[in-house]
Amino acid sequence: MMRRYKPDDTDALIAIWDKAEPHAHPFLSDDVRDQVRRDMADIYLPNAETWVLEQEGAPVGFIAMIGAEIGGLFLDPSEQGKGLGRQMVDHIVGIKGPLTVEVFKDNKIGLPFYVRYGFVVTGEGVFDASGDATLKMAMPAAK
């Protein structure tokens, strides 16, 4: 079940992020990771349009939106490969239509996921906090 974020979800979502993030971004330094963790709790989760994926009443993943851009999508590693990431994106596409995302070029989990979903590369960027290369991606508009 997908539902909107509540402030009480913060600890559970940070715990999911703590498990999933090192798999997606093993190249980030501990200092960058610690800063992003603080920003998640203080800035990103409360200010983004965040949706929580629950199973049996417990959060297992979340997707944070800034307009039609995916600001973050994280799923507990034990739940990956079961179609739940697609379920989260499908839910948001149903609300907002075609989406965009910026993903690390070296993200061995997220980048293949977005390509499989149908996102195409539209540009390149850099994550200012670490200098790592990113790819800007978009879903083609429905025909």
Q: In words, what does this structure look like?
A:
There is one protein chain. The chain starts with a strand and ends in a 5-residue tail after the last strand. Helix 1 (10-24) packs across helix 2 (30-47). It has a seven-stranded mixed β-sheet. The protein has four helices and seven strands; from the N terminus they run βααβββαβαββ. The chain has helices at residues 10-24, 30-47, 84-96, 110-117, and strands spanning 2-4, 49-55, 58-66, 69-75, 100-104, 120-127, 132-138. The protein has 143 residues and is α+β, with helices and mostly antiparallel strands.
Structural topology:
Elements: E1 2-4, H1 10-24, H2 30-47, E2 49-55, E3 58-66, E4 69-75, H3 84-96, E5 100-104, H4 110-117, E6 120-127, E7 132-138
Parallel strand pairs: 4-5
Antiparallel strand pairs: 1-2, 2-3, 3-4, 5-7, 6-7
Helix pairs in contact: 1-2
Summary tags:
143 residues, alpha+beta, 7-stranded mixed beta sheet, 4 helices, 7 strands, 38% helix, globular
What proportion of the residues is helical, as a percent range?
A: 25-40%
C-alpha termini separation:
29 Å
For the sheet with most strands, the description reads:
7 strands, mixed
H and E order: EHHEEEHEHEE
Specify the structural class. alpha+beta
Cα shape: globular
Mean pLDDT, all residues = 94
How many DSSP-defined strands? 7
Low-pLDDT runs of 5+ residues are none
Could you give the order of strands across the largest sheet? 1-2-3-4-5-7-6
Radius of gyration, rounded? 14 Å
DSSP helical segment count: 4
Strand percent estimate = 25-35%
